From TrEMBL:
Listed PANTHER family: GDP-MANNOSE 4,6 DEHYDRATASE, GDP-MANNOSE 4,6-DEHYDRATASE
Lineage of the species this protein comes from: Bacteria, Pseudomonadati, Bacteroidota, Sphingobacteriia, Sphingobacteriales
Family of the protein in this entry: Belongs to the NAD(P)-dependent epimerase/dehydratase family. GDP-mannose 4,6-dehydratase subfamily.
Role of this protein: Catalyzes the conversion of GDP-D-mannose to GDP-4-dehydro-6-deoxy-D-mannose.
Residue span(s) of domain NAD(P)-binding: 5-310
Necessary cofactors: NADP(+)
Protein name: GDP-mannose 4,6-dehydratase
Stored HAMAP family: GDP_Man_dehydratase (MF_00955)
Name of the gene: gmd
InterPro entries listed in its UniProt record: GDP_Man_deHydtase (IPR006368), NAD(P)-bd_dom (IPR016040), NAD(P)-bd_dom_sf (IPR036291)
Length: 326
C-alpha cells in the first residue's frame, strides 16, 4: 500500500486530496501544526477524519520535519501547508514567508537527508505571475506583487534547484483560484455565497466588497487535487499550470450568485475601499494546455457549476448547527 503524507491536511485542498488518495487506496498521513487541538472540521464534513492517520507536524521546524519523514517513510509528500491569504500576507509578511518558503525548503532538505526515494508535490500559485493579460503558461515570467506571491515564487525556485541539483522527483502545481464549500469565509467567493444566501433568508441585508472589477480563472477544488496526484504519477517530474482556461470578472460572479437566488446584487453590494489591497492583480488568465495534453487533465466544472454547488451546500449547511460536524 502506498503511503502519502499531506502537510496542511485541514485546509480545503488538503481535505479533498485526503479523500481522493483514500479512494485511490493510499494509506494517508494527515499533518497539521497541532493535531491535538485542530477541529478538522473539513475532514469531518467529508466524513473521512477517522480513516486518516493524523499527526502534528510543523514544517518550519527542520528537526520535526526530518524526524517525521524518517518515521513515516512516505512514498509521496504533498505540501499544501502555509499561510494562504494574499490579503493577510501584507500584514504578516514574515509568517507568510516562513510558513510557505522555509517550510518548503525544510521538506526538500529532509527528503535529501533521508536518502529515501520520496516524491514531493509543492502547492504553487498563479499569484507568482502578477497580471496576466496574455494567458499565462509554464514559460511566463514571474512578477509577484504581494508578500504571499514572493514566498510562493521563492518556494518554486527552491524546488526547481533541488530537482536539478539532487535529481529529486519534485514538482510544483501552479494553481489558479479554486473554490468549493470548504473555502474559508475570508476568500471572496465564499464570502459572496454566504452573504447572498443570508440575504435571501432575510438574515442580512448588505455585503461589503473591495475591487469587483478584477478578473480571475476560478476552478473547482476537487478537480484540482486530482491534477496534483497526476503530476506525481508521471515518468518525469514537471511543473504544470492548473486552471480552467476561462476567466470572469468578480462582477460576473456576483451577478450569477445573486440571480440564482432571485436577488439583484446592486441593491445589496456596497464597495468598501478598506478592502482594497496595497497591490492587487487586476487580471488572471491561464493557458492550461500542457496539463490538458500531458496529464490528460481538464477542469470538469465551470463558473456556473461552482456557484450552483456552493449555494446548494450553503443553504443545506445553514440549517445545520456548526456543531453537527463535531
Ligand atoms: C491563486 C490564489 O488564489 C487565492 O488568492 P486571491 O486571488 O487573493 O483570492 P481572494 O478570494 O481572497 O481574492 C480574489 C480577488 O477578489 C478581490 N476582492 C474584492 N473584494 C474582496 C473581499 O471582500 N474579500 C476578498 N478576499 N477578496 C476580495 C481581491 O482583491 C482579489 O483580487 C488564494 O487561494 C491564494 O492562496 C492563491 O494562491
Amino acid at each position: 500500500m502506498k503511503k502519502a503524507l499531506i502537510c496542511g491536511v485541514s485546509g480545503q485542498d488538503g481535505s479533498y486530496l485526503a479523500k481522493f488518495l483514500l479512494e485511490q487506496g493510499y494509506r494517508v498521513y494527515g499533518a497539521s501544526r497541532d493535531a491535538q487541538t485542530s477541529s478538522f472540521i473539513n475532514l469531518r464534513k467529508l466524513d473521512i477524519k477517522d480513516e486518516l492517520n493524523l499527526i502534528s507536524l510543523n514544517i518550519t521546524d527542520f528537526g520535526n520535519t526530518l524526524e517525521c519523514i524518517n518515521k513515516i517513510k512516505p512514498d509521496e509528500i504533498y505540501n499544501l501547508a502555509g499561510q494562504s491569504s494574499v490579503r493577510l500576507s501584507f500584514e504578516q509578511p514574515h509568517e507568510t514567508h516562513e510558513s510557505v518558503s522555509t517550510g518548503n525548503l525544510n521538506l526538500l532538505e529532509a527528503i535529501r537527508f533521508s536518502n529515501l526515494p520520496i516524491k514531493l508535490y509543492n502547492a504553487g500559485s498563479s499569484e507568482c505571475f502578477g497580471d496576466t493579460i496574455i494567458p499565462a503558461d509554464e514559460s511566463t515570467i514571474f512578477h509577484p506583487r504581494s508578500p504571499y506571491a514572493i514566498a510562493k515564487a521563492t518556494a518554486f525556485w527552491q524546488l526547481d534547484n533541488y530537482r536539478e541539483a539532487y535529481n529529486l522527483y519534485a514538482c510544483t502545481g501552479i494553481l489558479f483560484n479554486h473554490e468549493s464549500p470548504l473555502r474559508p469565509d475570508h476568500f471572496v467567493t465564499k464570502k459572496i455565497i454566504t452573504a447572498a444566501c443570508r440575504i435571501s433568508q432575510n438574515k442580512s441585508r448588505n455585503l461589503s466588497l473591495g475591487n469587483i472589477n478584477i478578473e480571475r480563472d476560478w476552478g473547482w477544488a476537487p478537480d484540482y487535487v486530482e491534477a496534483m496526484w497526476l503530476m506525481m504519477q508521471q515518468d518525469q517530474p514537471k511543473d504544470y499550470i492548473i486552471a480552467t482556461g476561462q476567466s470572469h470578472t468578480l462582477k460576473e460572479f456576483i451577478t450569477i450568485a445573486f440571480n440564482t437566488l432571485n436577488l439583484h446584487w446592486e441593491e445589496h453590494v456596497e464597495i468598501d475601499e478598506v478592502l482594497r489591497r496595497p497591490t492587487d492583480l487586476q487580471i488572471g488568465r491561464a493557458n492550461p494546455a500542457k496539463a490538458n495534453e500531458e496529464l490528460n487533465w481538464k477542469a470538469k466544472f465551470g463558473l456556473n457549476d461552482i456557484i450552483e454547488n456552493m449555494i446548494e451546500d450553503e443553504l443545506v449547511s445553514s440549517f445545520k448547527s456548526p456543531t453537527s460536524y463535531l
